[in-house]
What we know:
The complex is a heterodimer. By secondary structure, chain A is mainly alpha-helical. Chain A has helices at 2-12, 38-52.
Amino acid sequence: MKLLALLALAAFAAACAPVAPYQRAYLARDDMALDGNPGFMKAIEKTYSAKEAASGGGGVGGGGCGCN
Amino acid sequence: MRRFLAALAIIVCVPAAAVEAGAPAPALSMTPLEGGAPVTIAGLKGSVVYVDFWASWCPPCTRSMPVLDELYKRNKPRGFVVVGINKDASLADAHKLLARIPVTFVLVQDGSDAAAKAFDVKGMPSGYLVDRKGVVRYVHRGFNAEHAAAIEKEIDSLLKEPS
């Protein structure tokens, strides 16, 4: 019974909820970026991805959309 | 009690199965972006259908739109259909993008996420190429030049298959 209670607690009391890739419209907005200056970070990210031949994973412009 | 516990664990731990190649296309009825009669994938049986989940906030989706439109225009007479399922939070955002990148294929809305859940979309964009018999034959997650070339070949091979 204790195990059941623990399982129920783990299942329903978690503070984090996964956001499906198709539900990231708000997360993908520029003003949802972690950095306070999303425009500047976008430029840095672009330069970084060009220099390193890598893209995605950043916290700016489209980084949250689950696309590659 | 053990059975109940096991059932609960299964419900909690097992995610919905994603639609992969070989699975039948989910039966869905979707409202066109502009309203009107619903679009059903079952109603398109006999055609080769590319079901594309897209959104204006997803950069690869915006790159895929003109390519899909070109493929649609070219292969439409042979029985090829594209159904673009929009995943914008606001339809106004979708219309803003469509004003910039107009397309001629069928566009539908999925405000309730019913279609995205039925396909268990794992990334944006996601494309499902459905054959004339209603079976998903190819799945594309993401979009780049390689995807574009592969989709073109796959469409051609599926259009050659009898219905």
